[in-house]
């Protein structure tokens, strides 16, 4: 994770992250005994992530570090970081762009999760993480969802929709046609919808809008974003699932 916050915002976020009262841990996960995706789900929940943002957080961490709290990656010198920099811990918090996050914190699972919670705006924006922008995190979506479901108080079942595009609907790595392909969903397939977001406006389909749903098609194995205008649900998707 390499992008930089403005200095003033970094200071503000650090203050929120490390002075606010920590979220209460799920009773079934009070001790840090888990590993891998289960560890990220546990500390992510403790940090404050809930629902679909928690699944996203775990998927990003799996893509970044495989949820290894000791993981690090050295980056060579750049204009912003002439001495180079290091991505650290579960969510690979960069020491140049986020200097308020010490090494002690970065390599501690819970402190790293708390920092990720603040930097991501409580899970509302993951664009600072490369694996989110490229869509690599979607490879770990099912792993992340399973880990979250194992938490007491984790995510519930996703709603379903039916694909209306014929012969198929492209599934993208992000909410727009400029993003890479993540597969396709065939006409008539029943897909699970985990959350929605806003992206490119789509004028075709049945209810043109800029709403994109994050879906999984169990028939084709595709997981990613698809234009909501081509997906039939019993109600407005925004009343059925939360934002991504």
TrEMBL record:
Source organism, top-level taxon: Bacteria
Protein keywords: Signal
InterPro entries: Lysozyme-like_dom_sf (IPR023346), SH3-like_bac-type (IPR003646), SLT_3 (IPR043992)
Residues of the signal peptide: 1-25
Residue runs in coiled coils: none
Pfam families in the record: SLT_3 (PF18896)
Domain SH3b: 158-235
Protein's name according to its UniProt entry: SH3b domain-containing protein
């Amino acid at each position: 994770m390499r992008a930089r916050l403005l200095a003033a915002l970094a200071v503000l976020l650090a203050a929120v992250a490390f002075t606010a009262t920590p979220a209460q841990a799920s009773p079934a996960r009070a001790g840090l005994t888990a590993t891998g995706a289960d560890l990220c789900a546990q500390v992510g929940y403790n940090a404050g992530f809930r629902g679909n943002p928690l699944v996203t957080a775990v998927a990003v961490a799996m893509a970044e570090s495989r949820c290894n709290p000791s993981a690090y990656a050295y980056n060579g010198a750049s204009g912003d970081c002439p001495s180079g920099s290091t991505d650290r811990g579960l969510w690979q918090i960069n020491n140049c762009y986020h200097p308020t996050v010490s090494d002690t914190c970065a390599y501690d699972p819970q402190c790293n999760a708390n920092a990720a919670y603040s930097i991501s705006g409580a899970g509302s924006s993951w664009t600072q993480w490369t694996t989110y922008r490229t869509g690599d995190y979607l490879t770990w979506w099912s792993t992340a969802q399973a880990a979250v479901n194992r938490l007491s108080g984790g995510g519930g079942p996703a709603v379903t929709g039916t694909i209306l595009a014929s012969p198929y609907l492209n599934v993208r790595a992000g909410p727009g046609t400029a993003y890479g392909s993540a597969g396709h969903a065939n006409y008539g397939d029943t897909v699970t919808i985990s959350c929605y977001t806003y992206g490119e406006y789509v004028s075709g389909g049945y209810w043109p809008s800029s709403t994109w749903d994050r879906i999984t098609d169990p028939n084709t194995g595709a997981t990613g974003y698809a234009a909501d205008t081509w997906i039939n649900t019993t109600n407005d998707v925004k009343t059925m699932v939360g934002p991504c």
